[in-house]
Amino acid sequence: MYLHHLVRLILIGLAAATARRQPAPAERNPHITLTLDPTTTFQTIDGFGFCEAFQRAHSITNLPSPWREEVLDLLFNTTTGAGFSIVRLGLGSSPDSRGDHMNSPQPNADGPFAWDRKDSGQLWVAKQAQRYGVENFIADAWSAPGYMKTNGRDDMGGWLCGVKGEGRAEGTECKGVSWVQAYAEYLARYVLAWVDEGVSIAHVGFVNEPNLIKPYATMQSDGYQAAEQTFALSVALAGIGLPSVGISCCEGQGWSYARDILAEIQDAGAEGALSLITTHTYKGLPAKPDKPLNTTIPVWVTEISPIMDRLGMTQTWYRNGSENEGLLSAINIHEALVTGNASAYVYWIGVGQSSAEAPFIWAPNLKKNVTYANMWWPNDNDTVIEVPAGTVPYTIGSTYWASAQFSRFIRPGAKRIGVRIGGISNYTAILASAYQDKGFGTVVQVINNGDQNVTAYLSTPNLGDPAAVGRKCRLDTWVTDDVKKLELVNTATTSPGIEKEVAISRRSLSTFVLKCGWKA
């Protein structure tokens, strides 16, 4: 009896131990639905791009072949690269080219207007961009030349002589002279110089981050002064035969700055003279979009990078959600397009010599004994370091992949359409947006900012084309994550009206490209 009882206890203990050792059932991936709504439309997308101002263009021109061509492909090729469609140019105001200054074509008040047909290397880059089909160039002045300003210099802020209220500045050097119309004519001639070289400027801006006083080209302005300058520039452009060139304003440092200066421009009655509202998303209350700006004019985010956080460039897609990581960059693009209703997203530096600036592509200067002072200058053939065989003199940062994956598939002219996320209970890490382009199909961008893989069911309605009903759709899936970099991971076939199961990996940007309309 005792033995029977002992055996029974041992068996019970073994069973309990076995139960403890058995692994728990695998947690089921969260399931969501993505329902496209082509009847709900938002803004038209103008494109994505970057800037090469302040002599950063030399970081491209300095590269020897074949790497220079590889970098150009990474930037502009619509099949193998990002296919960027916007280039932001810097219009010079400095009296010289020391350091990374952008030299003015008219550095003296009584001197001639003499453009050097290089513009700190930007003309060459723009010409290369045109070879790839780029047509959208926005030219921005950070400041007027110093002789036009209250402080007598193009840096350290200061106000344009003659604008209302410029007398607030101490030590004014204006001496009662207004340079408002002269500055407008200076910019118009600058734009004409580009046009004469075969590069059409779509929009021109006359100020950058007008709340700042910095030891580089800066000029202060409020919205009322910006309105005054807008009217003057409109007259100057028409007078020189360029009435179709749009005027953009005002490159505010963050979303709240753009909102405030826009309200003053509207109050002054100048909004209708603008073609674009331009803003950055560095600082402000808020710095990034919390809702669309109060305007019917297209809004562009024209500058952003992790430079304010002093983080430098990284190739890491996700580690802890820092501003220099690709995943957060993708989220920032999503917020600009969806929350801010922005029509374009332009990164700060496309290719740069300093990794501290977190450019898309870091291409260190190949000169021997390079110093900070001459880092940005064009190279000569006598002092260039020979690149060892088997190496490449550039590095691609993770922010490049985020912008590239939006730019390659969301082409200029695409329309943002509605997309609803359903089926989520406690998993809230999914962001989605959708875009429709007659020439490219329908594009769905999905960001998974969580640590779980997700199964999604993507609906494919007729996408606004009744002829597509009963026909097949091709569904391509492209992914960027910790391992993949803009990689095609799957091609499938589906039909309008069918929910197609797709996989979304953790901490990733997934792009689903739908092309419908051919018979099965």
Automatic annotation (TrEMBL):
InterPro entries given in the database record: 6GAL-like, GH, Glyco_hydro_30, Glyco_hydro_b
Record-stated family: Belongs to the glycosyl hydrolase 30 family.
Taxonomy, superkingdom: Eukaryota
GO biological process: glucosylceramide catabolic process
PANTHER family linked to this entry: GLUCOSYLCERAMIDASE (PTHR11069), LYSOSOMAL ACID GLUCOSYLCERAMIDASE (PTHR11069:SF23)
Name of one Pfam family that matches: Glyco_hydr_30_2
Protein's UniProt name: Glycoside hydrolase family 30 protein
Record's keyword terms, sorted: Hydrolase, Signal
The Endo-beta-1,6-galactanase-like domain, residue ranges: 33-244
Signal peptide: 1-19
Lineage of the organism: Eukaryota, Fungi, Dikarya, Ascomycota, Pezizomycotina
SUPFAM superfamilies: (Trans)glycosidases
Gene Ontology MF, one: glucosylceramidase activity
GO cellular component terms, A-Z: membrane
